[in-house]
Design a protein that fits this description.
Distance between the termini of chain A: 44 Å
Largest sheet of chain A: none
Radius of gyration of chain A: 24 Å
Number of helices of chain B: 20
Structural class of chain A: mainly alpha
CATH topology of chain A: MetI-like fold
CATH topology of the largest domain in chain B: D-Maltodextrin-Binding Protein, domain 2
Strand content of chain A: under 5%
Strand order of the largest sheet of chain B: 2-1-3-13-6
Number of helices of chain A: 14
CATH class of the largest domain in chain B: Alpha Beta
CATH superfamily of chain A: MetI-like
Number of strands of chain B: 14
CATH architecture of chain A: Orthogonal Bundle
Helix content of chain A: over 70%
CATH architecture of the largest domain in chain B: 3-Layer(aba) Sandwich
Shape of chain B: globular
CATH superfamily of the largest domain in chain B: Periplasmic binding protein-like II
Distance between the termini of chain B: 67 Å
Order of helices and strands of chain A: HHHHHHHHHHHHHH
Oligomer: heterodimer
Helix content of chain B: 40-55%
Chain lengths: 299, 433
């Protein structure tokens, strides 16, 4: 009886509130991750998925992966894709945020409209860009040809080098509004008085940007970049629809390669090993993010 | 205060983003699987056939449920299957069959997941080259001696036979053949090509600024391998033995078509449906495709003047066998599944299904009398005599992947035919030996 009473003491009640969320996480997030890690240390394929004779082969899947040129190139592709997308969408998003923070008519509605790319289902965007970049019927080649910038149609999606470029373009288009809206919100939190006193002290536009805007936006920028990294790193649908990892495996990402190994080639363990590499990388970024945000709150 | 505001907005955005992309930021396998192809979200809309039936299952108390999974997105196919099921359900009251549509892109995934989670249908109608993999998985019932398949095309029976045991019943057969635009051919003064050299010459003569001579699906997956196989096999090479004079000649022939501009490089992004659209839009003068396109072509382009002939040969005529097989899942309602299959494979029902589907019966005797000599389907029946199955091999998906990589390398110019063949052979040897 006293034990039960103890359980419901004021300082313990908080635990009970957390319990449902904790159980949810344990079942729907914790279990799949642990199961996936175990799977990646076994040798599970079409032959023994159901029969239940699963041999533990420890790190063999991972060792094989790092010898697999498609895996190493998809790891490199994922990094290249993420960094390129982040740079472009951040710079353009930042510029647009600064632009729309000026007070002029229609600033707010136009900023709202600019959010549209982020709301369109990614599959639709991917199909749209696939058509835009088509060799013979694509409007991009048509425009370039009309401007006499090119003589022969560029084979955007059928040449290994340019296919990645097309994917990055599509993803930057989706990512700009995300960056813009977060940075816009960050801008509104900077007190106007700071700018006023700076201008009284004779600071120019460039100076106020470097000395006031940027330092005060630091926490926002960190969050935008880290969240952007996570969202971009696990890209799947865009690549699947636009190139399916082709031509000649040149645009495979960790996610699409994991799917291909697991569900097209029945190499479940290898597929889960790829997914775990993805998980470990994102875990590092996630820890970094949590650290950055807690530091910000204790500041 | 302001920091809390930022955190709030960030959290809100993070949550919305999570919902929109279908997963949280945890990543890992969950992310890969949940974000799966767009088709994921489609079944609800296209499931009408399945829903109608499940409704009836609830109302009739005693009948045992028998579930079928299939992947035909074609509405005509769905309606026809539904009709067969309705007739069956009306003919007896012991079993109640219902069918569920699973998109093709997800079919393998769903069967795999279903197998490990013990949530499988009682009957699956699946793509024949995958049959052996699922037999290896051990989810299919041994049907040896339960169905008479002695009249069926050998290739179709082989596709569901493993170690001399029958693990399925062929649903229908199809193969690839060459479609040509008769007006364009006559306009250029060409005759119907029968050999590779003639094909190349004809394609060259038909190629103009807006028309490419030939098109066939070369996507880097099973669909592409399906379309490349006839060229490979025509040289005398097999799917497992590519790095030789024959295999290299097949790859070099495709490379020649691309290099001389008589086939568009975009074929690596065109599904068989896309290829058909290019053909009926008049952008391609000839195409390799299957008989299932005929109903669509007849309704979409009734004025287009086209004919079908055998795929031109190098050493010998060759085509590739496609089509679906019925398989019975073990551990499910096996008796009900067998009862339905016995009903569905009767001659009368097979004829009805095949004609409605635009398929060729896997039963030779039915197939040979199925079409008149002037029917566009007739050349496909002839082509079936040269058609060979892929596999059957549990590791076929990996072999297929190596082959499709090889012709994609050649088409995109990232490897010479010799290098592509050597690389594919190395991969295949690692799988088969």
């Amino acid at each position: 009886m006293t034990k039960l009473k103890k359980l419901f003491r004021y300082e313990n009640v908080g635990m009970l509130f957390v319990l449902p969320a904790f159980l949810y996480m344990l079942i729907f997030v914790g279990y799949p991750i642990i199961h996936n890690i175990i799977l990646s240390f076994q040798d599970v394929n079409a032959g023994n998925l159901v029969k239940g004779t699963r041999n533990f082969i420890l790190f063999d899947n991972y060792l094989e992966l790092f010898k697999d040129s498609v895996f190493t190139s998809s790891l490199w592709n994922t990094l290249r894709f993420t960094v390129s997308c982040l740079v472009f969408q951040f710079v353009v998003g930042f510029a647009l945020a600064l632009f729309f923070s000026q007070r002029f008519s229609f600033a707010k509605p136009v900023r709202g409209i600019l959010l549209v790319p982020w709301m369109i289902p990614i599959t639709v965007t991917a199909l749209m860009f696939k058509l835009l970049f088509a060799t013979d019927i694509g409007i991009i080649n048509f425009i370039l040809r009309s401007l006499h910038l090119i003589e022969k149609n560029i084979e955007w999606l059928t040449t290994p080098g340019t296919a990645m470029f097309a994917l990055i373009c599509a993803n930057v288009w989706i990512g700009i509004p995300f960056n813009m809206i977060l940075i816009s919100t960050g801008l509104t939190t900077i007190p106007k008085e700071l700018y006023e006193s700076a201008s009284i002290d004779g600071a120019g536009k460039v100076q106020t940007f470097w000395k006031i805007t940027l330092p005060l936006l630091k926490p926002t920028i960190e969050s935008v970049l880290i969240l952007g990294f996570i969202y971009t790193f696990k890209v799947y649908d865009l690549v699947y629809v636009m190139t399916s990892g082709g031509p000649v495996n040149s645009t495979h990402m960790l996610s699409t390669y994991s799917y291909k190994l697991s569900f097209e080639m029945f190499k479940y363990s290898k597929g889960s090993a790829v997914a775990n590499v993805l998980l470990v990388i994102l875990l590092f970024v996630g820890v970094f993010y949590i650290k950055a945000t807690t530091e910000e709150e204790t500041d | 205060m302001k920091k809390r505001k930022i955190t709030a907005v960030l959290t809100a955005l993070a949550v919305t983003a999570g919902i929109m992309t279908g997963c949280g930021s945890g990543g890992g396998k969950g992310a890969a699987a949940d974000n799966a192809p767009a088709a994921d979200k489609a079944p609800a809309a296209q499931e009408s056939a399945g829903e109608e039936n499940s409704g009836e299952t609830a109302s009739s108390g005693e009948a045992q449920a028998v579930t079928i999974w299939y992947y035909w997105e074609n509405e005509g196919h769905q309606v026809t299957l539904d009709q067969l099921i309705q007739e069956y359900n009306g003919s007896q009251d012991q079993y109640e069959v219902n069918a569920k549509y699973v998109p093709f892109a997800d079919f393998k995934k769903q069967l795999s997941i279903g197998a490990s989670a013990d949530e499988l249908p009682d009957i699956a109608i699946l793509d024949s080259p995958d049959h052996a993999s699922y037999v290896a998985m051990g989810i299919f019932e041994d049907l040896t001696g339960k169905f008479d398949v002695s009249n069926y095309y050998e290739g179709t029976v082989n596709s569901c036979t493993v170690d001399g045991k029958l693990y399925g019943v062929p649903f229908g057969a199809n193969c690839l053949a060459l479609y040509y635009n008769e007006d364009m051919l006559n306009g250029a003064g060409c005759s119907v090509p029968a050999t590779w050299d003639e094909l190349k010459e004809t394609a060259k003569a038909l190629t103009t600024d807006s028309v490419t001579g030939l098109a066939f699906c070369s996507v880097q997956n099973e669909e592409g391998t399906f379309n490349f196989a006839p060229w490979l096999w025509s040289t005398g090479a097999t799917s497992y033995d590519i790095n030789n004079e024959n295999g290299i000649r097949a790859l070099a022939f495709i490379q020649g078509l691309i290099d001389e501009g008589v086939m568009s490089k975009e074929c690596i992004n065109w599904t068989q449906g896309d290829v058909m659209n290019q053909f009926i839009a008049g952008n391609a003068a000839m195409m390799v495709n299957g008989p299932w396109q005929i109903p669509t072509m007849q309704s979409e382009a009734p004025d287009l003047n086209w004919k079908v002939t055998l795929i031109p040969r190098d050493k010998e005529y060759a085509s590739v066998l496609g089509g679906e097989n019925y398989a019975v899942i073990n551990g499910g309602n096996v008796d009900g599944a067998l009862d339905f299959l016995t009903y569905a494979t009767s001659e009368e029902k097979v004829k009805f299904m095949m004609n409605q589907f635009g398929y060729i019966s896997a039963d030779k005797t039915i197939a040979e009398s199925q079409f008149a000599a002037d029917s566009p389907y007739y050349p496909f029946v002839e082509e079936l005599n040269y058609a060979m199955p892929r596999g059957p091999l549990a590791e076929w998906p990996s072999v297929s992947d190596a082959i499709s990589l090889a012709f994609n390398q050649v088409i995109t110019g990232t490897a010479t035919p010799e290098n592509a063949a050597a690389q594919a052979q190395a991969t295949i040897d690692g799988i088969v030996k």
